[in-house]
Input
Amino acid sequence: MAQTADNFLLNRLSHASFAIFVGIAVLCALFGEPLTAACAAAAAGIIVCGRRFHPGRGSNPWPTLQKLFFTALVLLLITSFWTGPWALSYWLYGIVLVAFALAPRGIATAITVVMVVLSMAAAQGAEGIADRHQMISAFMLTIFLSAVLIFLREYKARQLAPLRRTDELTQAASREYLSADLHKEIQRSEREGTDMSIIMIGLDAHASDNEPDADIRSILPRIGRFLHSQIRDFDTYYRAADLQFLVILPGIATHNALTRAEAIRKGLGTLLDTHGMNLTVSTGLAGLNIGDDADSLQQSAANALRRAQQQGGNRTQAYSAWSPITPPIQRHAEGSAP
Output
């Protein structure tokens, strides 16, 4: 609940900031300050391309456009050192945090150094401005505080990394732990002499091409809750990719995993139909064989899923059985039919 509220507030703040910068750009353009208007427009562009403004902005071309707007803002601020107005120097107070939020650490550091050097040089040449030295002192203090904030953010991220075992959107286990957990389950299965299978679940790409990103993201939490309801207490499921999930089934042989995979596939299909989404689901599964490790087992399930999708999707496929799979229950029903 706290995370949802946090995201809500950040979205509202993003929309409000966008409106403010657009207003500044319009007013500065009307009052004959084109450089300030251009800076405000670039800042508005950075905001509107961000994921906080709209959840679907995480995929191209939005990240690229956001970096282009940021580059334009940096170039405009550098230009202001020679052309003015001097009031644009106040924009430098926030450029450090923006740089470290949008650019790699090395590039952000280089931008910060360039801005410091240019501001020092501009202060020496601005003889007619009495408070130029105070502004430089404030700028240096801002950089120091920004560096402290960035350090604390990185430190917090490293300290909390071991605790982040769940995907924020779907509440599935994080993919960073998939290989390690799968390796442990393989060792346990080999030690105890039991079966083990995995299921790779994917939304069919050919069906999702026409769906807006926001609609797909909106259904992912429901998919996560559905998978949670379908697994046993000691099963685990992971968000393996943007539109793919992986389920580890200890103690289940391949022929039983087929029935589970087909039930999950049909259940997810019903879920998607209920929400009016023109999406289908395919599943690929693989059982543990002698010599398998975490990587090879994942690859087997991924190959099975890929094969199912290549055959048109909306089906279940077992690894190395390159024909559509009919679950055992259905085969029994077909055999008893007159």
User: Anything to note?
Assistant: The chain has two domains: 2-162, 175-327. Strands lie at 196-203, 236-241, 244-250, 281-287, 316-318. The chain is about 60% helix and 10% strand.
